[in-house]
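Session log. Operator J.P. requested a structure for one protein chain; no other inputs attached. Running the standard single-chain path with token output.
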Amino acid sequence: MSFVPLATHKPKKIYGPISRLLMRLVLIRHAHAVSMEEHVQRPLSTRGRDDTRRMTDFFKANRQLTNYPFVWHSFLARSRETANLMLPAFSTDTNLVETPGLLPDDIVHPIAERLDHLGQDVIIVGHEPHLSALGTLLIRGKEAPAAFDFPKSSVLALEMTGKIHKKNGLQRWRTRWFMTLDLLAS
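Structure written below.
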């Protein structure tokens, strides 16, 4: 199976009061986790670890997740484990950073605002419904209705457009590509 991105990444410079390169962002939903009854911290299940390894192999081969200096993840075990298992698909100098504001029910505006001022490409490994709300806010300028269905282990790549949402003043983003486990060859 070949991988065809919706848009190739060629950094573009924005001219105006502040010139900078347009950022790339990747949103990854954690893999399948055990139930609360099985383990209170809800680490990845055997299936979740296997699914993450499949995605890691796919992205390691096509190098779509390289050159991201940071991978943000929540403090929850399933997010941290997914990020750690995917390390081979990232650049060798990628830093994993436990980041507040990435829990399932956290408000997405603070993360969107932080991304607006970050100026560096970043990968976020997180949870639903937070990822759907964040992706939708960045693209549409509002959190709902959700623009994306984020199955476990899915990966959404976005890119800044250099334009601003009129309603909220945040940077506008566009979809580069979206990958789910269902699209991988068995």
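Operator note: DSSP finds four helices and six strands in the chain.
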